[in-house]
Every structure is written in C-alpha cells, then in structure tokens.
Amino acid sequence: MSLTIWGDHTRSIVAAAASHQRLGWIHPFRDGNGRVMRLHTHLVLGKLGLTNGLWSPLRGFARSRDKYYALLAAADEPRAGDLDGRGNLSERALVEWIAYVLDLCLDQVRFMAGLLQLDGMKDRIAACLHYEENVVKSGVRTEALRALHYLFASQGEMERSEFKALLGLGDRLATAQVSALLKRGLVLSDSPHGKLRFGVPQHALRFYFPNLWPEAEAV
User: I need a labelling partner for 95 at 20 to 30 A (CA). Which of 35, 129, 166, 169 fits?
Assistant: First the structure.
C-alpha cells in the first residue's frame, strides 16, 4: 500500500480512520451512530484539504458494506493474547480496519481521477449530447461538444460570444443552442446575458460520471 500521495497528511488520515472505529465503539447516540461516524470521516478528510470536493470515502463504504461492518466489529473484539496490543481491544483488528480505510480512500481517488481525465470526459460529453439530440430531442445538438469540453477543461466561465464561436454554427442557431443547453442545465449562467459555466444536471450524471451515483443510473 503506497501512501506517498498523501504527503504530510498520512498520520492524520490514520487518526481519522482510528477515530471512526472508536466513535462506533463509544456509541454515543441511541440511533444514527453509523451515519455520524461516516459523515465525521468525510468532513475530517475535507478539512485536511484532501478531497477538494471531488471524492468521498462514503461511496467506498457503501460499496463494501459487508466488509465495512465485519472489520468494524472485529476491531471491537478483546485482544487475542499478549501479542495483540496492550489495551483491552484487539490492536491487530484495529490495524486491519485502518488499512481497509486507507485502501478504500486510495481506490476512490483513483476512480475519480479516471473519471476526470479530459479525453475520457470528451467521449462522455459526446454520449450525453447524442442522447439529448436523438432520444430526448431537447434541441441540444452534438455540435456543442467542442464548446462544452473546452468549458469543462477550463474549469471557469466563458463569455457567451466566445462559447457561440466554438459551436461553429450561425449566430441564430448558436443562440438557440445556448438556450437549449441552459434549459437542460448543461451550461449555467447567473443572468440572461451573463457568462457561461459547465453544468452537471442529474440527468447527465450517468453519462459524465458512470457508476458514481446509483440514483443517477436509475434516471
């Protein structure tokens, strides 16, 4: 297991994983302890500046539910002999739990890194536009691919005139295309004539970020 990508935060991540288990062992609430524990770990990693709002351990916990509960329970067991730590509970099982959390975080980082690769994202935007044009028939056209991909890659805002120029359509068709994209939430703006930024509406999630949100896959 390589932890080099975490830099100086390795100790803090180990502490967050251990505190997750110990919070469950303390069991401070009559109900909802698991939700609080998972949210606590999510917020700690965010406070450390490690998630940048792009990934969360919550997805990993949900996708390995049986292993999550098994390792969590095992770390509550009494120590197995003199070589299993010095406290009342099993140190070996706690280490296994921490290793699971670290591996899970690395897996989620790699998953999101793959989803956010620019070349792959271009193909997923193209699939979304194809669906919009040929199935939904929302007025969105596949010609919007270059402009949308550029807007995604720039991670910022773009003047409408610049966006329309990238569409490669006449002014009237380009204006209609911007309106269709705004209506479908594929681009966003704060005012009727304001700059445009990349939008990620729920109906586009299954194209942009497949296998990320089960709710989006069901739409």
Answer: 35
**Whole-angstrom Cα distance, residue 187 to residue 18?**
42
How far apart, in whole angstroms, are the C-alpha atoms of residue 91 and residue 18? 11
The whole-model pTM stands at 0.64
Tell me the mean pLDDT per 10 residues along the chain, length 219. Answer: 56 89 86 90 88 83 92 85 70 91 91 80 94 94 95 88 94 95 95 92 88 60
Max Cα-Cα span within the chain: 79
Give, in order, the Cα–Cα distances in Å from 47 to each of 12, 21, 119, 214, 219: 11, 19, 30, 26, 32
Write out the two tokens for 103. Answer: 């591996």
Q: How crowded is residue 101: how many other Cβ atoms within 10 Å of its Cβ?
A: 22
The 3-class secondary structure across the chain, one letter per residue, is: CCCHHHHHHHHHHHHHHHHHHHHHHHCCCCCCHHHHHHHHHHHHHHHCCCCCCCCCHHHHHHHCHHHHHHHHHHCCCECCCCCCCCCCECHHHHHHHHHHHHHHHHHHHHHHHHHCCHHHHHHHHHHHHHHHHHHHCCCCCHHHHHHHHHHHHHCCEECHHHHHHHHCCCHHHHHHHHHHHHHCCCEECCCCCCCEEECCCHHHHHHHCCCCCHHHHCC
